[in-house]
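Memo to structure team: turn this sequence into structure tokens by end of day. - J.P.
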Amino acid sequence: MAVVPIHCKDKLLASLWTQRVRTRHLKDMDNHRCQRDFLAFPFFLMAVQTSASSWTAEVPSTVSSLLGSCVVVPCSFNYPEPEKKSSEVTGIWAQKNQDRIYHPDRSSVLQDYKDRTQLVGDLQVKNCSLRIDPLHQSDTGPFHFRVEIKDYNMYSYADNAVYIDIKVLPEPPTLSVSEEVRVGELFTASCSVSHSCPTDPPVLTWSHSAIPTVQSQQLPKGQWKVPSSLTFAPTVADHNKSLSCTAAYRGGKKAESYQTLNVKYAPLDVKVERESTLQEGDSVELRCSSDGNPAAHSYQWYSPSGDLLSQGQTYRLERVSRHTGALYCTAINTEGQGRSSQVQLNVIYPPEIKVGSACFSNVSTVTCLCIVESVPLSDVRWSHPDGVLSCTKVDRHRSVIIATLQGSLGFADYTLCHANNSEGNATQAFKLPKKDTTRTMHVFKAVSAFLVPVLFMSAWRLTRKCRKSHMDATTTQDIAMVTAKATVSDDSTATQENINNEVPGSQYVYGNMEADGRCDSYESVMGEDIYANV
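Reply from structure team:
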């Protein structure tokens, strides 16, 4: 702290002395007399020292700022209060060599500072804060404050100088995020940055869409702080994502900080991993997988009814069959548990023609059903030694196909059902219902009683006209065919014959079938069998 030197020839000291001791002779005193008078009045010396110690100023020794931004140097000062308060106080900032960087009279300011410096403090309340905007690389200081009080005194606070630490690049903001957050639970992340330009602070932005809260704070040593808080409930999608906070300064400079979120959540996407297809008799190892944080620490396997089948991430099944039931697994971690959907193993096996397959007769038509179970679904076809296959259709239900053959099958004793898939094939013969020969004879006699006179008259006319000498053999064959087609049966019976005699003796009912309503016609030409793939 600087002290005004005491000398009896100093005009200022003489004025003070005149006011204190009420004498008008101090101007003529020599140095000896002056010293004697000071010793004679020790209370005056104390008063002068006390007044001198009140010329004080407070400024930070160093202020950090960003090149191209602005800097505000906080400053406060004090001085001995005069008996009459002056209405004109002038504040000045200068370099060490007394070159002025700020003065109310711009003409006395260095050229490089004329339009860049401003006194933002109120001298009436002893605030001498200085703003430099924009900050140049040469603005390192030291700078000090000087006060001039009209009709009273002036003082330079040269011992209270400030240096400016100029940063070329901004410091990254300080980001704080909890180490562990949970799905659906609110948490708050905070981000802050310090600066020296309160009139134009940096702008903080977040990578998350939530709305932040911002509130500026003043720090010691000419620094301010911009804190920003972000509150939201994270989702699974936020796990392992970077949450970043970016500080944007005037002039386009930016600094960023980020932190990866560690979001805790119960197992999701629980599924059973397995081979796509299995053959009957194979063994298979099932594996339960899940996505959770932390990873699942235990797994359990259940039947659809909720019975516990096994524990562990893998489950081995020996000799699977078409009757192996569905199952599901659960994954458990510290946050909860998740469950997979029910899984039915895809076991493939060759076709089997089921009990219930048979042929039925009704008056002049015969209907045959061939019920086939297999995975994958089989191709089913019929074969017949003679006759006309008028219509067939196919109904599907999961692993079961019902192929229906309907029509007049002639005089054959049986028809064949053929089923095949990638795993094998099966064939079964169905015995056709017997014709009622007695009724057929009656029908034949009735038809003959009508046809014989007609044939006789036709033959007589043909003979008379000499067009033909005998009846056409073809006409006789047509009569026999008409007679055969006129034969009807009063019984409705159903019989079946298994070629290998291996079909069990129980009957099944199949419902909810998907029907293929298309009808295809089949004819037997010259004894060749026409087969149809259904």
